[in-house]
Amino acid sequence: MPTGNLTIVQFLIASIIKIALFLFVLLTGVAYTVWLERKVVGHIQNRWGPTRVGPFGLLQPLADGLKFIFKEDLTPPYVHRFLYILAPMLSLITALISISLIPVGDTITIRGITTPIQITDTNISLLIILGVTSIGVYGVALAGWSSNSKYSMLGSLRASAQMVSYEVALGLSLVGVLMLTGSFSLRKIVEAQSGWFWHWNVFGGFQIVAFFIYLCAAYAETNRIPFDLPEAETELVAGYHTEYSSMKFAMFFMAEYANMVTVACLASILFLGGYSGPKFEAFLPPILSSLMPVIWFLARVVFFLFVYIWVRGTLPRFRYDQLMAFSWKFLLPLALANIMLTGLWVALRA
Amino acid sequence: MVHLVLFIIFGVICVAGAVNLLVQRHPIDSALSLVVVMGALAGLYLLLGAEFLAAIQVIVYAGAVMVLFVFTIMLLNAGMEERTRGSKVALMFGAPGLVIGSVLLAWILLQSKPSVRPVGVGSLYGSARTIGHLLFKDFLLPFEITSVLILIAIMGAVVLARRESQ
Amino acid sequence: MTGNLVDIPLEYYLVLSGILFACGVAGFLIKRNLITIFMSIELMLNGVNLSFVAFATYWKALSGQVFVFFVMVVAAAEAAVGLAIIIAVFRTRETLNPDRVNLLKL
Question: What is the ipTM of this complex?
């Protein structure tokens, strides 16, 4: 039975509930990642960040959302209309798809129905996520081109070239983890790291170099500092989303932060052990003890988001030729060396 | 039954994308139709059980080769293509001929004995493991040769696209 | 829902592959833009890939899928070099219309 031991109706209902819940949590997480970024960058720069709207500025994302909805949504006259509207949709859709494959926790049993805390799991989950990242390049490329403006065009050309270059390093850095696990399925990758923290791929699997490569490549894929020349405010006005306003700009914004969250989830699954951690089954009732892995997972994701924002507040940005040279001349050979050494170790270990 | 519905959906998307590629006048619209065709083809590969190939189709073909095409169209700022003087005779004989030819071919193909052989879902599996075994054992020589081919293509592309230094 | 993998007759896939290939040939002959002609070639290659994978499933021979893998690699290499050539042609002739690129002298 492909639906496990559930009937089709139970499976459908469970899936719909999971999809709604995951989407809601993801979108709220995206909004509050913006809040976190403004607070943390503010404190790094010795100022407060948003404090006025609600306690500690916690209602600031709500205010921002309302502002975006009420802004005038103007379409400049000379744009290529279909692509102008399609590009932010494409960015946002590809940013949100990856959440359907992320295993957030182990199984949970409610009223006798046991279901994994994950929307779906396939044999090629990791490849699907890589493919969706590749499609996300179109959102950026088409946004700049359809805007019919010099700044947008330059920004989007640079951004697409950067994203395509760093995809190679990204993909290759994951091969070490795949060799250690033997499967593309994210749940199996997490299960191979179960145990204490020395079982994680970063420590016990010696993938610390791959971890470093993955972080650099992921920062470049999501166009974040130190790799954010395509949308640098001081250089290109606003890069590829110069001509966008109101809801379409908000979609690009949300897509960028949703990509950040996806990268944080993937890094914690592939390198830091996913949702593994003590479940405290002796102390807690069954539902709470099956939510403990979710808490461990969220702790790792928040840690990664904090590192993202910390790097943003601290480092200057790369020049474009330095950026491309870094990908092709440094990260790519390093990733290949990592693959060879990991392969050697796997062959010797067996 | 479900397989047939999915096949029809993906097949219609493929054919619609291919016809749209012919009909559109701006190359960027043709390029995006081709991306849609490749996505639908990835769905068809999944229907046929070739899961690794479906993922590779999206990552390599739709996500890298077509990005290269879109890049070039953006870079060269290729405008709308011009209307050429097509011949009326060709249109009068060609279009019905194309339709008749393709219907005839499809009819002949579909007349043959249906080759539906029940195959269990688990027996043929285009998983990465089996393809990897084939690639690195039986097809090792072509694999190495294609890697050299890629190297030559990279060098060729760099040399050809370089601006002539004065 | 344990459907058979091959509920659909092989001929359906072959007809679809033929349609894609025919559209590719038609695009190659009709279009007047070098990049679109090149994209029609890619469409032809995709049609052929589909028939390869269909045969691989129906004859239970995985070497069909490996061949598709090689076709994709070769198509990627060909796209890179072909687009570089198109860029070089555009730089010298200022046009992408193949009807205008008909003299050896610039």
Answer: 0.90
